[in-house]
Amino acid sequence: MTNPSYPNTRLRRSRATPWSRAMVRETVLTPADLIWPLFITEGEAVEEPIASLPGVSRWSVDQIVVRAKEAIELGIPCIALFPNTQPDRRSDDGSEALNPDNLMCRAIRAIKAAHGDAIGILTDVALDPYTSHGQDGLIDDNGYVLNDDTVGVLVDQAVNQARAGADIIAPSDMMDGRIGAIRRALEMDGHVNVQIMSYAAKYASAFYGPFRDAVGSRGLLKGDKKSYQMDPANSDEALREVAMDIAEGADSVMVKPGLPYLDIIRRVRDGFDVPVFAYQVSGEYAMIEAAAAAGAGDRDALVLETLTAFKRAGCSGVLTYHAAHAARLLNG
Ligand code: PBG
Predict the structure, then answer these.
(1) Candidate list 69, 222, 225, 256, residue with the active-site label
(2) Cα(20) to centroid of ligand 1, in Å?
(3) pLDDT for the residue numbered 162
(4) How far is Cα 270 from Cα 302, in angstroms, rounded to an integer?
(5) In a domain, 7, yes or no
(6) Is residue 98, in this structure, part of any structural domain at all?
(7) Quick one: average pLDDT of 276-281?
(8) Which end of the chain is less crowded, N or C, counting CB atoms within 10 A of the terminal residue's CB?
């Protein structure tokens, strides 16, 4: 039976079969697009589940080395490390961040000793896992985070991480001028090939709660981070942040959180010729897990759809707690 008034264009034609969908697909997600954030804790053979991040644990250094091996086998190119510093090592000035034998540095050295350059190690630069007040920098008597004094400490933290073997320094503190200061210090200390991935557009977000549980800063944090992290209402300002960090020597930039900020990712992608990464943060992970547990959606499908959305928005890659699971799905 023929229809004399058929549509000129049938977009459904190319969607009709799996082979055809594969042929016209514009965006492809692979394990190489994933960066896996991992939480480190003291001890030996320790796994500590994190209640607000179901399925995510803190691992002792020996176990982090095993997670890194898993990542290599899955084709994940890079892991991101975050320490849960023991309470008695936290202080007002976060000086444990400068200790060459702190948890972070021991983990970096152990992973490098076991796996060499088979995997990249990204390290977060900010003082919040080390301060007794949970802020990312040094505070004055009113709790205000001091910019320039903080940058001085972050520079030393970054060099400490690079000396331990970090491959990518990722400042997440949002102080002004820290990228240039860190780049200069890395060069002066001989780390010419250590990259900087700047958390360029990092928003003061309600989606970081479970992360603060994971690094143990939630109960400590006084006030909020709105005097340095960006206002979620702003978009043009993100472009200024990115431009500034590129001018100061960032190799790549990050937008954080992820899904609620896909518009920012797209603007950055269109405005700059620099690799853009997104951080699908802890609260986003928890939302997906909660939705799946409540039967509101299929977990695997939610994971792959959201990660594909980052690629479509223009990302080179995504930091996600689902990295290992997603890589397993993608590897079939
Ligand atoms: C620390 C830092 C945070 C995250 C990454 N680095 C928390 C914060 O800024 O309070 C959040 C990551 C996540 O929620 O998964 N500066």
Answers:
(1) 256
(2) 41
(3) 98
(4) 26
(5) no
(6) yes
(7) 98
(8) N
ipTM of the modeled complex = 0.97
Distant-in-sequence, close-in-space partners of 148: CB < 8 Å, separation ≥ 6: 177
125: tokens are 């630069």
Among 101, 6, 109, 9, CA closest to 62:
109
**CA–CA gap between residue 131 and residue 90 (Å, rounded):** 5
User: Is 256 labeled as catalytic in the residue annotation?
Assistant: yes
Residues 6+ apart with CB under 8 A from 277: 35, 197, 252, 253, 254, 255, 315, 316, 317, 318, 319
CATH number of the domain where residue 270 is located: 3.20.20.70
Over residues 20-68, the pLDDT tens digits come to 999 999 999 999 999 999 999 999 999 999 999 999 999 999 999 999 9
Our CA dihedral for 311, 51, 232, 174, rounded to 10 degrees, sits at -90
The verdict on residue 21 lying in a domain is no
Does the Cβ of 128 fall within 6 Å of ligand 1?
yes
Query: Cβ atoms within 10 A of the Cβ of 251, count?
Result: 17
Backbone angles phi, psi at 239, to 5 degrees: -70, -35
Q: How many domains are there within the chain? A: 1
- Is residue 275, in this structure, part of any structural domain at all? yes
Q: Which residue range is the domain that position 63 belongs to?
A: 28-331
Question: Cβ(36)–Cβ(80) under 8 Å?
Answer: yes
* The CA-based dihedral angle spanning residues 204, 210, 215, 217, taken in that order and rounded to the nearest 10 degrees: 60
Question: Hey, what amino acid is at 59?
Answer: W
Residue type, 285: Y
Rounded to two decimals, what is the model's pTM? 0.97
